[in-house]
Design a protein that fits this description.
Number of helices: 4
Structural class: alpha+beta
CATH class: Alpha Beta
Strand content: 15-25%
Distance between the termini: 26 Å
CATH architecture: 3-Layer(aba) Sandwich
Number of domains: 1
Helix content: 25-40%
Radius of gyration: 14 Å
CATH topology: Glutaredoxin
Number of strands: 6
Amino acid sequence: MRRDNELFVERDTLVVSIGPEDGKVFRRYWEKNALPFSGLPDLHHSVLKLYGQQVKIFKLGRQPAQMLIDKKGILRYVHYGRSMKDIPSTVEMIALLDQLQQESV
């Protein structure tokens, strides 16, 4: 995401990464890694619960989830991963964005 953030910016798309840490830990990670997109700490899993993201204790916590939410707040795409390796590629996400943009024209 860091390397390809410009592709999302070009499509007027805001990338937000939501993590299970508290604000201080999350901020330190963000600053240390100089991430170019937005981050949101979700220590109490409020956002996780809102969108149905799963927590699996035997897999050490949250499972990955990628979502596209349009400017009206409508969830247009969701992918719940089964592991940290089960994440759509940037190419796939950009193709979905382009498809959604064409549908809205």
